[in-house]
Amino acid sequence: MQIEIRGAEKLSFRERQVVTLKEMGYSNEKIGAKLGLTSSTVATLLNRARNKGYQVVIVIPGDSLGLFGSDEEESEA
Q1: Which superkingdom, per the lineage (predicted)?
Q2: Beta-carbon-side half-sphere exposure of residue 40 (alpha carbons within 13 Å)
């Protein structure tokens, strides 16, 4: 799985760090501990990033989801 942040150029370095960790499922508290920030600072950075308008796209290969089988299975459908 890959995470792509569209509009990342609008974000500061710290905002990119926070957004990436948040999208990976970390809580504000864990992000803060990892980056040496308070959870309220993390919340502020996330809010600023959202206001700048970025978009997160998760890229998941279809074969890892079991959506694409052999050619025989596709022709049966």
Answers
A1: Bacteria
A2: 0
